Amino acid sequence: MDFISTCFAAMLLLFISTSAARELQQYGSSSASASAMATASTTPVTQTGPVVIAEINPWSLGRTYPPVNVAAGSSVRFIWPSTTRHGLYQIPSGQCPQSFTPTPSNGIVALVKAANGGSFTTPALVPGAYWFACPVPTHCPSGMIVKVTVT
What we know:
mainly beta, 151 residues
C-alpha cells in the first residue's frame, strides 16, 4: 500500500464516527427513515485508489452536517428527495449569505437551483476548504451548510 493510500485509509477511519445518530450506508443500500436520523450521513460510497465520492444523503432541512474531509481528487455527492425543495450553492465561507445571488465578486456559485428533488456531484476537488449551502430561504441558517476540507 503506498503512502497516499495509507494516509487516505487513516483519514477514512477517523472520518467514520461511532455516533448512533449517524447512519452509515454503502451506495445502493436503503437508508433508514429520515425522521430517525438526527445527523445526516456523510459516507464514502465509492473508492478508486485514493479518490472517494463522499455522499451527503439526504441533503435536507433539520439536519446538522459534520465537516467532511476527503483526499485531493475526491468528489462529494449531494442528494435530496423529490418531496423537498432544496438546491446547492458554493459559498465563500461558513457564514450564510443574506442573498444567494451570484456575482463576479461575492464568491457565490449556483451549482443547482432550488428544485423538488435532485442531486449534484462536485468535480474532483483540489486541496482547500469548500463551503456548500442550500439557497432556499431559512435553510442555510437552519443547518443546511457543510464544510468540505480537501487535503
